[in-house]
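Sequence, structure tokens quoted for completeness.
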Amino acid sequence: MFSGIVEETAKVVRLVKEKDNLHITLECSFVNELKIDQSISHNGVCLTVVDIKDNTYTVTAIQETLIKSNLGVLKPGDKVNLERSTKLDGRLDGHMVQGHVDLTAKCVNVREAEGSWYYTFEYEPKNEEHITVEKGSVSVNGVSLTVVNSKENTFEVAIIPYTYDITNFHTFQPGTVVNIEFDIIGKYVAKILKQMQG
């Protein structure tokens, strides 16, 4: 379980394809605190540390993950948002994020607004659970955000300077593909309503 509060961005240093899997090696400041089998959110995708060498660590993304996320389009040098799992005795500063990406969306607009930034994302819903609600929560590349201007297949988020600087949002431009995890409570409500109607 994660909170959607990104700790830092890691740099992709190596990508190795093995059958349908992709081994991703990254560099970050807290490699010496990691251990094998630890779960870390990468752009909102929960992946397990499988190797640690020097100042890098490696995780493996399987085909299902690559299909549903933007990890398959990573290149060496790209920045990836990182968050270690939430401690049970800590504060939940964002919202409940599982690290299970629902789908990808495309950034279609970026606008600056007197020190903050507004990003508009467009996506193709796969089912009735893929919705946003005004002032509800959504995870974009693992960042817990509040939805504004929610529509059927688009939504907007506002980014403060701190989030802009510490995450990979500052690299986004129209056409950038991002990972989306819809709010878990919203998904449960949508599923219950469908069962009640059907």
About this structure: The radius of gyration is 17 Å. The chain has two domains: 8-84, 103-197. The first strand starts at residue 8 and ends at 18. The chain has a mean pLDDT of 93.
